[in-house]
Amino acid sequence: MSNSVISVISRFLEEYTTTTPNKLKVVDAYLLYILLTGALQFLYCLLVGTFPFNSFLSGFISCVGAFILGVCLRIQINPQNKGDFLSISPERAFADFLFAHTVLHLVVMNFIG
Amino acid sequence: MAEHHPASDNKHKSALTSGASYSGNGRSSAAVADPGSDAGPAGGGGLSGGLSQPAGWQSLLSFTILFLAWLAGFSARLFAVIRFESIIHEFDPWFNYRATHHLTTNGFYEFLNWFDERAWYPLGRIVGGTVYPGLMVTAGLIHYVLNLLHVTVHIRDVCVFLAPVFSGLTSISTFLLTKELWNQGAGLMAACFIAIVPGYISRSVAGSFDNEGIAIFALQFTYYLWVKSVKTGSVFWSIGCCLSYFYMVSAWGGYVFIINLIPLHVFVLLLMQRFSKRVYIAYSTFYIIGLVLSMQIPFVGFQPIRTSEHMAAAGVFVLLQVYAFLQYLKDRLTKQEFQTLFFLGVSLAAGAVFLSVIYLTYTGYIAPWSGRFYSLWDTGTFPLKYVLALYAISAVYFAGVMVRLMLTLTPVVCMLSAVAFSSVFEHYLGDDMKRQSPPLEDSSDEDDRKNAGNLYDKAGKVRKHVSEQEKAEEGLGPNIKSIVTMLMLMLLMMFAVHCTWVTSNAYSSPSVVLASYNNDGSRNILDDFREAYYWLRQNTDEHARVMSWWDYGYQIAGMANRTTLVDNNTWNNSHIALVGKAMSSNETAAYDIMRSLDVDYVLIIFGGVIGYSGDDINKFLWMVRIAEGEHPRDIRESDYFTPQGEFRVDKAGSPTLLNCLMYKMSYYRFGEMQLDFRTPPGFDRTRNAEIGNKDIKLKHLEEAFTSEHWLVRIYKVKKPENRDRVEHKLRGADTTKQKYTSKKTSKRKRGYIKNKLPFRKGKKTTKKSL
């Protein structure tokens, strides 16, 4: 069972490196970085405690929000998904991404205390 | 919606041809309608060259209808302003007005951090953290912008007219929402309905400056933006939806409705296998940014991640992430590979979620799941027009729980009925198009031509049969159509009349000013409340404290501008119970309580002179019950009833009632007043009884003010005496005993002191002899 899981995962990784375009790989690297940052923040919270709670929440939600927005960007610029997003060009997707990030960071700045 | 354009085109063309079809029946109508249908667009083109496009007329028509709907909605809400004046109504709006006034005079940060020490004396109230600021900020912003443009409007007028203006915006957002869900015709009907429907008017008349006035607009607009973002899958629309949701959270506690309906919608889509990347983008963005935005309101605080009402949204968010990730893997891997991973993944995830939920509930971090939450997930009945149906079902449920939430049901009822009317009208006005084509083949030579390509005889027979049938139907068709259309129009007109009547009679009373109508129709205005509040404002010290029952707290704070003890916020039951105890006790015990609370004035409402049934004696039992809840040893409700269990204010009433402070204050000097010659003096018109205790003497209070119709009575609490009063008998000269001295004797008798006190040298006199 574990052998098959490992083989599945390795095959998946190989297919991933060969088939995904470079643009998407950059976005995926960014997503991985955000994920690690969020995990680190959560770990810190578990170790040190939640005071001040609003600061922890704002930092953690900032990571989650950036991750989600990155995933949305990736979905929208993926050429395979063009059928779903006929009216949204990759440039429009990126502009939306920037706008969403502006709103997110303004709120996070207000919340961080 | 694919049917959008053909339907609207149908509507346009049928409007032109239906006029022609009324003129006759049977074959003649066909003949008339033929050139009519040909001449329609051509005639339109001939009439006005540049404006011949249907799209131009369509948008002009939409704009005009929406403008008229706004105007109608605004005007329908103005009854109270025209009949009385531009004044804030009822009780809660007075607090909102006072808060907005504070905002405009002191600035935004002062308002957000406001600690009000003039309410709930001596406790005070943290207003910034216990209020939804959206309403005040909206009114304050409009006032600021207008004054910036040197249009000097008073903040009171902004507050009074805010709700009618926003009703027009609600119409427009309902139009947009229904247009997205159905078509433009239904949208226009929905906009017209919601402009005049009584359920919404009741909470948004001019003068009713309350949260619902702007919250319904925010609700409809948020739903419109959500539908738009699901349709386009664009992050821009999702952020728009988040910002609108933020406005909704700042405006009303009913935002919980949105944060449960949208996840429910997504969950239903998942169940129906209609998951798409657009739904994922829309909901994920909405949830996470909406979450952090909603926590910016101080009153909401950390509730979105703690209470059970918000857990549905979080659950669906996590579910959606997992589902999307699994979809992604499924696309990349073969079936067997996917299955191995899937099995492992699901078991890990289920275990993790289960353990974390148990841990969080055990540590009390998440409030336990209430039954109300479960009933939200009744998956038994799911019709297929998703959003509209879900909205309707959940709104009906909420309205059933709390009547005041009928307000959430109103918009969805408007939309559904608009859809129904629109479909009926389309069917009965729009079918002319389809009926035009068969009559063209009515003549026999056209029959032959048509049948050339088909099975000769059978087709011919069928065609003739059909055309005869249609001939017969033609005769009936226009009549049924016109009857149905007329009926629908009559229904709509009667609805409009009904709405106006209900608004005028039931929802247009400011309740600060009472009006009664005499036999000859002339109006008698009773302005006692404002008279009394303004007396307080102008004749008492600025820091005077007024005790009254909590109903009048906001009005006293708003109109009289004095410190109150308890008000409509009712957040502290013990404090209210203290006030209740003071009102129900005898005068001396009440005086002790009032001294401990630093009360200067007491205000009560008394309706016995005019027969007003909302006065304090009618509410008195509630005061007793609340006081008994906190002080069961001092106050017992049964003491205030007669031995037979009746609540009577006449001679047969219970002595505790006849000697309590509320009774004394209400009926002080009322025993001298004779209202008319048929009734004895001291006849209480509200209770229809002659009062029991007519000569009331107040020891610790003195009457300060009584309004014109004795509706409001204000008493001043006397300061304590300079010296303690000592109860003893005054020494009096005893003139009964006289020792007879005869003047006949010559000897001079020695004089003596009458009633001489016994004197003993060297001994201190006892206190008794003093």
Automatic annotation (TrEMBL), chain A:
InterPro entries: DAD/Ost2 (IPR003038). GO terms for biological process: protein N-linked glycosylation. It is found in: Endoplasmic reticulum membrane. Keywords: Endoplasmic reticulum, Membrane, Transmembrane, Transmembrane helix. The chain crosses the membrane at residues 30-49, 55-73, 93-112. It comes from the Eukaryota. It is a multi-pass membrane protein. It holds the Pfam family DAD. One of its GO terms (cellular component) is oligosaccharyltransferase complex. Pathway: Protein modification; protein glycosylation. PANTHER family: DOLICHYL-DIPHOSPHOOLIGOSACCHARIDE--PROTEIN GLYCOSYLTRANSFERASE SUBUNIT DAD1. Component of the oligosaccharyltransferase (OST) complex. Belongs to the DAD/OST2 family. Subunit of the oligosaccharyl transferase (OST) complex that catalyzes the initial transfer of a defined glycan (Glc(3)Man(9)GlcNAc(2) in eukaryotes) from the lipid carrier dolichol-pyrophosphate to an asparagine residue within an Asn-X-Ser/Thr consensus motif in nascent polypeptide chains, the first step in protein N-glycosylation. N-glycosylation occurs cotranslationally and the complex associates with the Sec61 complex at the channel-forming translocon complex that mediates protein translocation across the endoplasmic reticulum (ER). All subunits are required for a maximal enzyme activity. This is Dolichyl-diphosphooligosaccharide--protein glycosyltransferase subunit DAD1. It comes from Etheostoma spectabile.
From TrEMBL, chain B:
It is found in: Endoplasmic reticulum membrane. Gene3D superfamilies: 3.40.50.12610. Coiled coil: none annotated. GO terms for biological process: post-translational protein modification; protein N-linked glycosylation via asparagine. GO terms for molecular function: dolichyl-diphosphooligosaccharide-protein glycotransferase activity; metal ion binding. Residues 61-380 form the Oligosaccharyl transferase STT3 N-terminal domain. Residues 740-770 have a biased composition (Basic residues). It is an enzyme of class 2 (transferase). Residues 546-602 form the STT3/PglB/AglB core domain. Residues 28-40 have a biased composition (Low complexity). Keywords: Endoplasmic reticulum, Glycoprotein, Glycosyltransferase, Magnesium, Manganese, Membrane, Metal-binding, Transferase, Transmembrane, Transmembrane helix. GO terms for cellular component: oligosaccharyltransferase complex. Residues 1-45, 725-770 are annotated as: Disordered. Component of the oligosaccharyltransferase (OST) complex. There are 2 OST complexes, OST-A and OST-B, which contain STT3A or STT3B as catalytic subunit, respectively. OST-A and OST-B contain common core subunits RPN1, RPN2, OST48, OST4, DAD1 and TMEM258, and OST-B contains either MAGT1 or TUSC3 as specific accessory subunit. Belongs to the STT3 family. This is Dolichyl-diphosphooligosaccharide--protein glycosyltransferase subunit STT3B. It comes from Gasterosteus aculeatus aculeatus (three-spined stickleback). The lineage of its organism: Eukaryota, Metazoa, Chordata, Craniata, Vertebrata.
